Amino acid sequence: MNTLELIQKNLDTFSKSERKVAEVIIASAQIAIHSSIATLAKMADVSEPTVNRFCRRLDTKGFPDFKLHLAQSLAHGTPYVNRNVDEDDGPSAYTAKIFESTMACLDVAKNALDTSLINRAVDVLTQANKISFFGLGASSSVAHDALNKFFRFNIPVSCFDDIVMQKMSCINSTEGDVIVLISHTGRTKALVEVAQLARENDAFVIALTASGSPLALQSNLVLSVSVPEDTDIYMPMASRIAQLVLIDVLATGFTLRRGPKFRDNLKRVKEGIKDSRFDKFNLKS
Amino acid sequence: MNTLELIQKNLDTFSKSERKVAEVIIASAQIAIHSSIATLAKMADVSEPTVNRFCRRLDTKGFPDFKLHLAQSLAHGTPYVNRNVDEDDGPSAYTAKIFESTMACLDVAKNALDTSLINRAVDVLTQANKISFFGLGASSSVAHDALNKFFRFNIPVSCFDDIVMQKMSCINSTEGDVIVLISHTGRTKALVEVAQLARENDAFVIALTASGSPLALQSNLVLSVSVPEDTDIYMPMASRIAQLVLIDVLATGFTLRRGPKFRDNLKRVKEGIKDSRFDKFNLKS
DNA sequence: TTTAGTCTGTAATAAAATGACATGTTGTCA
DNA sequence: TGACAACATGTCATTTTATTACAGACTAAA
Lengths: 285, 285
Hints:
Two copies of one chain form a homodimer. By secondary structure, chain A is of the alpha/beta class. Chain A contains 14 helices and five strands. In chain A, helix 10 (about 165-170) packs parallel to helix 11 (about 190-200). The termini of chain A are far apart.
């Protein structure tokens, strides 16, 4: 838990002198972490043991330990994290807010992920005869990205963002096929139907979606990126970013599982596209 | 600058004893920040002043100051940051590494961005008659995503990942049209040609690419996400994630610039797709 | 081997944090 | 209103921690 927030929240549980300390720290945390207990006591106009008691009240071992906690909370906890974009934010403000909230979302997603399920998913993917990635709306670009990643592995992959094509593809699927469905909410009716269809035709369905959603219930394996839903209209869909990173994770797991021989393949793909690029050191070529 | 990285980088500038200290700190940084100089000295099997000298060599005021720096660097930088995935990493390890390195990349990208250019780009976009997003390969899914975002603004937008369509679209462009080109390296020949074509036809070209690249040179405005290039085959293309976040930033800037009336539009779009979803509280509907 | 230079440790000193205790303050109840 | 209790706060002593000064040891070049 962020120490600075913690102080702010418990502001009214402190005594008079302790609050003085709290206020000084909130006002100038950067200075506080570089001061000795004596200096800070003088700044807050209290005695040194008071500062010490203040620290203990915040579940730290003492003043030095408190400084450490505070320093850490200042390090990540840049002010904007989790704060929404505001109407009168300038470019620097909204840029920082969006980047930081995206990073915070990734952190949440990372901690919420079940790596044993990831391992399972990688298992299934490596043994698949054919892999399909389907998404609709915003999620279709995630599917598209997944195609791009897995395509390099030189295995049969496909990706459709057309619901008719998706359904047709499912009808033609057989055992050994893996369908990866991507949906933020997991409540898109069409995609739930696709999941049903796929399972009726013996395909294995992996869903990148919210756990407990209708789509999740129809799937064989659910990888949920539990990221706060985007209630705010400004809120960029950070869940989409988390899904993309999850795709990266699956692709990496896939590569690792396939072993070293397989990795040469990847190098060849990279080499293969070189001709279509300007050489880095000879731009005019 | 991240203290832990700094130590690792300067490992060979240290003397024998100082390196012992460095190694202990790298191996168990979490323990180090909670230890006194005496404890740490004992752990590294050196004297206390040596530890102190070590701290000073890293541009800190002394041991307590050093601990503070280290604590901060541990706060963001969980151990895996910037470390590549290793052949014998398990699912938890590679998942964490990928998430963390992605987050680190976003942080780098955030700090490297020029917000005045973003502001400029938003200016241009809001005044555009028509906006097109083009990308090839991995970048095409970024373009696709951008389409998805800007489509909601109810303005003419298009997105092609077909080079022929891109060129045709450029030939038909006129003044007032904005073309957003997305490329990680900025050295994809085809896309550079697209940029030239677009400019010949008086379109305004915004490039999301590496600064100084051939594509950048052909563009009117460059938004560069300077993220380390992916040298490692395992390395997920974090630059792509950074580009997506940048798209979010532009879309947000766009929304803000258009003002409150415009924001009602967004709500209508959100309402509009409700029918295609299962109701959250009535899943069987 | 000597010598200049750099490391490294010991021991003394200074600084910082903590603990114990005494004083002050506030509020309650007779 | 006065007395007591509970809590808050500060002073001072003690302990822990960090720093400085200095001397011995090592290393590389002459």
